Amino acid sequence: MKTQTQEALAKQQEYLKRQRDAIAYRMKKLSAKQTDINKKTDKLKEKIKKKYEDMKRVLDEDLRITLTQLEMEAEATERVIEDHMEHCYALTQDIDRELSELSVRLEKQLSYDKDTGETEGRIAAMLKQTDPELIQMDEFKNEQLISLTINLLLFIRSQVPVTKKLFQSYASEVVLDPNSAHPKLIISPEGNSVTYTDTWQEVPENNSRFDTTLNALSRHGFHEGRNYWEVQVVGKTYWELGITYPNIPRKGKEEHCWLGRGSDSWCVEFFNGSYNAWHRGVAHTLTHVEGRSFTRIGVFSSFPGGLVCFLGADTMTPLYCFCAGTFTDKLFQAVCPGDDNQGTNWKPLQICDASRSGPTL
């Protein structure tokens, strides 16, 4: 008979086998989800690509029609000019023949009884009819055509990048919470900017305040839908921007409180020309924007998609995207203006009105 210990071991063995099978099945489901998402993404990309190709065809056809119209107008004018030149040439031939006849008569001292008034009349009529000033381009119509073309270009530019128009529709007001700010940070009265100072501010201590890292959070969080906000970073050499759960550590070891160093926050960091995206303490170096500077940085979050995306908002250049799968708590906007960085980083981080366009293409 099996001992009690053997039975316990056998049960544990069966349990682990079932769990192993369950985990293997989960891996299979995750692989299927990955395949499904990739297929849907590829299908979406193809649809969008086709729409852009359709727009290109529409513009190419419009260009062809417009240029054909201008070419036909030029050809019609050219035919009139050529017709005038032919008539002028024919008249010069007649004049040359009459000159030859006059030369012969002068040489032979013969009389000339031909009526010169007819030739003079033809010459006068020809010069009047073929006056180049009578042939004019319709400059006003052409200027209108240029104006319409410019208006079309301006309209297209006002609609692109399309991600800008899309994310602007998710824009929200962000007000920084002074009670969360590190004592070396100055939050503006409106709550729309944060500035580093090397002077420790006299501020009340509370559980919400960061005391080791130069962070500040938004006053209000969000827990559904989509959210987009922008921060002006021009003139700065060091900053961090991100999204965090409310339970991010505020006290204690510095590395635990930094944005993106734990599982509770996501951020992009800029330092002396280099960009890194951080989550769970793992840095992703953004080499595709190395050395580039942006006036604004945009942060897009989607609860339905579990996404946190960072963009160079000037041109809507994608910087990096994180996928959390499903967010488990309310999200707050987070900023870190950085220290003075050897006297190069005194400018504030300024929250922008993300619903309005900043720099354009």
Task: Characterize the structure shown.
- There is one protein chain.
- The protein has about 350 residues and is an alpha+beta fold.
- It contains 5 helices and 13 strands.
- The chain has helices spanning about 5-110, 115-130, 140-160, 160-170, 255, and strands at about 185, 195, 215, 225-230, 240-245, 265-270, 275-280, 280-285, 295-300, 305-310, 315-325, 330-335, 350.
- The strands form 2 sheets. The chain has a 7-stranded antiparallel β-sheet, with no helix packed on it. It has a 6-stranded antiparallel β-sheet with strand order 3-12-5-6-7-8, with no helix packed on it.
- Helix 1 runs antiparallel to helix 2.
- The protein is elongated, with a radius of gyration of 38 Å.
- It starts with a helix and ends in a 9-residue tail after the last strand.
Question: How does the SSE layout of this entry go?
Answer:
Layout: H1 4-108, H2 116-129, H3 139-159, H4 162-168, E1 185-187, E2 193-196, E3 216-217, E4 226-232, E5 238-244, H5 254-257, E6 265-271, E7 274-279, E8 282-285, E9 296-302, E10 307-312, E11 317-323, E12 332-336, E13 349-352
Antiparallel strand pairs: 1-2, 2-13, 3-12, 4-9, 4-13, 5-6, 5-12, 6-7, 7-8, 9-10, 10-11
Structural category: alpha+beta
> What can be said about the biggest beta sheet?
7 strands, antiparallel
Shape: elongated
Query: Biggest sheet, strands in spatial order?
Result: 1-2-13-4-9-10-11
